[in-house]
Design a protein that fits this description.
The protein is an alpha+beta fold. The protein has ten helices and seven strands. Strands 1, 2, 3, 4, 5, 6 and 7 form a seven-stranded antiparallel β-sheet that branches. A hairpin with a 2-residue loop joins strand 3 and strand 4. The longest helix is centred in the middle third of the chain and has 21 residues. The radius of gyration is 19 Å and the shape is globular. The chain starts with a strand and ends with a helix. The relative contact order is 0.12.
Length: about 250
């Protein structure tokens, strides 16, 4: 039976550089985090699936909502299957595919089930995840974002207080807006607009941890049109209002 666990990570937390003695596959089912591994840094959110080689040193920083992951160690037969499909087991890889969230939801449902059929059902779903990862490699969905896509992401991060248009960002990285929109979603699993909103909500969550900051001040500082606009976006992201978030954490 495949080794499986579901792990919750603390909001705003970090993990120091470390490694694991066995390779693992991970599905992110909630939150966002950035990771440094094998001399590169990437950001991962819900729906992303990653392969970690054995002994690959990595460190992680978690966003204001923390993160939740399904972590499992593939069987030897699964690792052989990946190798047979041209996937190097010495390289950290990741993909975002529509199939991944659906399979992850089935894993979580079977874990809640806990009847005599659940172990076999779980093993089957995890095998499907291995196959989905191999298929993603074949279809070219595992490659790291090219420099111009990362540059577009950095432009959004660095000018979060500005409402740069898709056309403006595309012009700065030398790509057509349609191409940028398509490749950004392919590599980061979200649209540019949703990514900007996520960063602004995350910024608001950080500001809310300061006791004396007014909610309207937070909204305007983070680029929201009004207090109510912040509340709608914040609750959609975290499931609670900004006031409730602050009360829970202060």
């Amino acid at each position: 039976m495949l080794s499986l666990r579901v792990t919750q990570y603390t909001p705003g937390g970090a993990m120091a550089p470390h490694h694991h003695e066995e390779p693992s596959l991970i599905v992110v089912v909630g939150g966002v985090y950035s990771e440094r591994i094998q001399a590169s840094e990437t950001e991962h959110g819900a729906g992303r699936m990653l392969f970690y080689p054995a002994y690959a040193t990595h460190s992680q920083r978690f966003g204001a909502a923390g993160a939740r992951k399904i972590v499992f160690t593939p069987q030897a037969s699964s690792l052989e299957y990946l190798q047979n499909h041209g996937i190097s087991l010495d390289t950290a890889r990741y993909l975002h595919s529509p199939a991944i969230p659906q399979l992850a939801s089935r894993v979580l449902a079977e874990r809640r089930n806990q009847d005599e059929f659940a172990p076999l059902a779980l093993e089957g779903i995890l095998m499907e995840l291995v196959a989905a990862f191999a298929r993603g490699e074949r279809d070219g969905r595992v490659a790291a974002p090219p420099p111009w896509v990362r540059a577009a992401r950095d432009l959004i991060r660095d000018a979060l207080d500005q409402n740069a248009s898709l056309e403006g960002i595309a012009a700065k990285v030398g790509r057509h807006p349609v191409h940028l929109a398509k490749e950004f979603r392919r590599h980061f699993g979200t649209s540019i607009g949703a990514y900007r909103r996520h960063l602004r909500v995350q910024q608001a969550a950080t500001m809310l941890l300061r006791q004396n900051v007014d909610l309207t001040e937070v909204a305007l500082a983070c680029g929201f049109a009004s207090h109510s606009h912040l509340c709608r976006s914040f609750k959609a992201a975290y499931g609670v209002t900004p006031s409730q978030f602050r009360t829970q954490r202060l």
